[in-house]
Model the fold of this input.
Amino acid sequence: MITVKNLIKTYPGDVPTYALKGVSLEIAKGEFVALMGRSGSGKSTLLHQLGLLDIPTSGSVTVNGTDVLALSDTERTKFRLQHLGYVFQEYALIAEFTALENVYFPAMAFGDTSAKERATELLRIVGLQERLDHYPSEMSGGEQQRVAIARSLINNPKVLYADEPTANLDTVSSEVVFKLFQKLNKELGQTILVVTHEPEDKKYVDRVVWLKDGLIDTNYQ
Amino acid sequence: MTSTDIKTAVFVAYKTITRGNKSTAFFIVFILSLSFFNLMFVSGFLNGFSDGIMRSMIDNSTAHIIVMPQEEPIRKDFILDQEQVRAQIKTIPGVIASTQHYQVSGSFAFDKEKDGTFKYVSAPIVGVNQTEEKEVLTVYKNMVAGEFPDDLKDDEIVLGANLAGGFGTEQTSDLGGATVGEKVQVSYSNGMIRTYTVKGIFKITMGSVSNTAFISSQEAESLLSTYNNASEILVRVDLSQSTLDAYYSRISEIFPNLRIEKYTSRLSTVGILVAAFNIIAIIVSVISIIVAAITIFVMIYVNAVNKRRQIGILKAIGIKESIIEVSYVLQSFFYVVLGTTLGLFIVFFLVVPLLAIRPIPMPFGNAVLVYTATGIFINIVSIVLSGIVAGFIPAKMVASENILDSIWG
Ligand SMILES: Nc1ncnc2c1ncn2[C@@H]1O[C@H](COP(=O)(O)OP(=O)(O)OP(=O)(O)O)[C@@H](O)[C@H]1O
Ligand SMILES: [Mg+2]
Done:
């Protein structure tokens, strides 16, 4: 599903930061993978590149057979909308939209007319059927994060990326989120790559990929 | 832009406005309405100024069209058979009225202190039939003393304030303060000397009409030993029915031998003033539009910058930049339309009625805001256009930022 070859990301500056120094990685369809590593090891950077939110310095990324780095700006935006789900550490909901609107909006932008029903269904799956018309400011962090997860799934993404989705949540809410990922993975065969720093979370995933100083740390595998 | 894209943009704009901070929205609309009001007020006021000057000239000096005696092939002193000429002019649709003038010139003599010392002043004298004159010129509405009787007798005269004197500082060109009821002596170039009783004094600031005197047309005819002729005929027309040029050409067609002029060619110094005011009005309007555009830009920019995170999230989801831009253009369009509406409301339901209750006096009458449909249209279009541009640029700037920077930057 995802093939990463020799991915390099250097943040230019007075002192350039070599955040990714040549990462190669393969994630199969239907796999649930955790990305772990010390703070500053490059996890978020890697996820940003894979989620097409940023452009790497060099290397190649193939998602579902598409060389995504070869896409134009507009194509990349469309690819993101159509094939990728992304959950940020901060809930990144649109404050002016209700839970339901936040979830169906990406589908609406795609011209999907049945978006509302699907969004309602997704919110039911994440356990928020009672919160459809609530605005983000009226929901707890865990609830907002579950709305964000529901949103990331609305367009049936090929891959779901999540960058420390539970970092701001308490243990109980974190468990809910990871159990949800597990369920999506097992029942729908959703490919998931999740960044986490909780060793606890290893139990939910198929495989852990370790990053150290911008490189895959094979010692752990 | 597909219809889905537009729907998406409208949805974002709608939610952003309705869920946004109401007091911020009100503030934006209020500031926009003030910029629009500023634009409208300045242009309306300056229009009113030049309009007032022109109106004063038309109403008190020239009417709309001036008909004068033949010049080619031979120069004549009078328009002959003025009754017939005016009857023909009257048949033109839209002509309201016309009046006949005899122009003479005389030397006034007035002994203010009745002590044998006379002050002598030369001044133009116009012979009029006041019953007809009233339909064309409104000098009679500007009396500062006495009246301008419809049946001005042969030995009666109406003086302009600048000729009579006593209104404002004394001039060598005035009689030193002739008042109603007093007698003035006039010697004409043909040697005739007449004595008139002053019946009224009028004061008109614009133009030179306050330097002249009016006598009856029978008196003028007897002085000039003529009958049913005219030195000039002034024509008042209805400009809502037809253009000035159309009336001008129509009259010129009927009387190819007479010299015809439009009031616009009689404006002289007043015309320079009006032209200057029109230029000032244009400059000030352009500056007002620029100021309004910058105001809109700043308001919308601040608004868009406040929404950076939202814009970043929209982009992260996979919403095209063009949709985001359109959405923000729609939002500023909404604010501009509301601001413009409020501005129009302030002008027409607040300031115009207020000026009617509490007029600001001007040399030509009270200050009024004058608008043409075209003028209002241009003002609205320029403000809405600048709103669209001013909405587009900041949205474009924010939307083209790096996604991660706009979410967290
Ligand atoms: N926009 C940026 N400009 C410059 N340097 C950056 C930028 N973003 C990240 N970095 C640097 O790149 C390196 C990797 O950062 P990254 O955010 O990927 O780490 P991480 O593994 O996600 O850490 P954490 O667990 O703290 O989130 C760090 O040294 C960081 O300082
Ligand atoms: Mg990180």
User: Anything to note?
Assistant: Strands of chain A lie at 2-11, 17-27, 32-37, 58-63, 66-67, 84-87, 159-163, 191-195, 207-212, 215-216. The pocket of adenosine-5'-triphosphate (ligand 1) is lined by residues A 11, 17, 19, 37, 39-45, 197 (CB under 6 Å). The longest helix of chain A spans residues 171-188. Residues 2-220 of chain A form a domain with the Rossmann fold fold (CATH 3.40.50.300).
